[in-house]
Amino acid sequence: MESKIIAVPVMADLFARGEKPEFLFWVGCAGAYDDRYRKVTRAFTRILTHLNISYAVLGKEETCTGDPARRAGNEMLYQMQALQIIETLTRYEVKKIITICPHCFNIFKNEYPDLGGHYEVTNYVQFLDQYIENGSLKVDDTLFGNTRITYHDPCYLGRGNDIYAEPRSILKKLTRDFVELERNKSFSYCCGAGGAQMFKEAEEGKKEVFIERTEEVLRSRAGIVATACPFCMTMLTDGLKYKNSEEVKNLDIAELIVQVMDL
């Protein structure tokens, strides 16, 4: 697919012109710095542009939400980071936030209110499903219809925030061969990276978590495993490489939609 250049609006630039976007698109650390997950950021940005959504990003003013610090036990660092962000969002009168990272989604929605940060927070799979259901995003199964697709539930979307229906609704419109992994929904299995585990050495055991989950993906005989989290994408991609099974593709839901719509 030919790369298409999109001008992404920056909050400071809009405010300097007296404009106030409806949504802040929170990119997140992985979406900004991880080469693989930048592709997801670009995909979702294309969709926002296609829908003519009033949005902006913080750009260089965006910093880490503090989620990894809190999960690792550094409460002071978390609160310092969170309060700094809340101050920035207050300056720009942010009311609505869209996230592509479940960890950012969870902390904005469930933990920032304790520090005075009250926002209407939407995860991008909820956003995408809403616009598909109302007919603004028109997707079908012409591209992936005969491809078996499975889905890995991110912990912070599923068990953390009960978001199970939306990603499945999307994927079942993209393929006629959607299959569940052995452990799914509230019984799903972690990719092994959440709770700041991504930033520490593996603990002693017979098998690493991401290998266990990758083996479930392979037993599903899916050609694509869809993900909706940067940590999950990293761990499953590594797992497929480890198992010499790179013919199975790990694609984000936004990437699948962009391919179907040729955006």
Question: How would you describe this structure to a colleague?
Answer:
This protein is α/β, with parallel strands linked by helices and 263 residues long. The chain has helices spanning 11-16, 28-33, 35-50, 67-71, 75-91, 102-110, 124-133, 158-161, 165-174, 209-219, 230-242, 253-261; strands at 23-26, 55-56, 96-99, 120-123, 149-151, 178-179, 224-227, 249-252. The strands form two sheets. The protein has a four-stranded parallel β-sheet with strand order 2-1-3-4. Helix 9 (165-174) runs parallel beside helix 12 (253-261) and helix 10 packs across helix 11. The mean pLDDT is 94.
What's the topology here?
Blueprint: H1 11-16, E1 23-26, H2 28-33, H3 35-50, E2 55-56, H4 67-71, H5 75-91, E3 96-99, H6 102-110, E4 120-123, H7 124-133, E5 149-151, H8 158-161, H9 165-174, E6 178-179, H10 209-219, E7 224-227, H11 230-242, E8 249-252, H12 253-261
Parallel strand pairs: 1-2, 1-3, 3-4, 5-6, 5-7, 7-8
Helix pairs in contact: 3-12, 7-9, 9-12, 10-11
Name the beta content range: 5-15%
The tally of structural domains comes to 2
What name does CATH use for the topology of the largest domain? Rossmann fold
Q: What is the helix content?
A: 40-55%
- The structural class is alpha/beta
Largest sheet: 4 strands, parallel
Q: Which outline best applies?
A: globular
Low-confidence parts, pLDDT < 50 over ≥5 residues? none
Q: Please state the CA-atom Rg, rounded to the nearest Å.
A: 18 Å
Count of extended strands? 8
- CATH class type of the largest domain: Alpha Beta
Head-to-tail CA distance between termini: 9 Å
- What is the string of SSEs from the N terminus onward? HEHHEHHEHEHEHHEHEHEH
Name of the CATH architecture of the largest domain: 3-Layer(aba) Sandwich
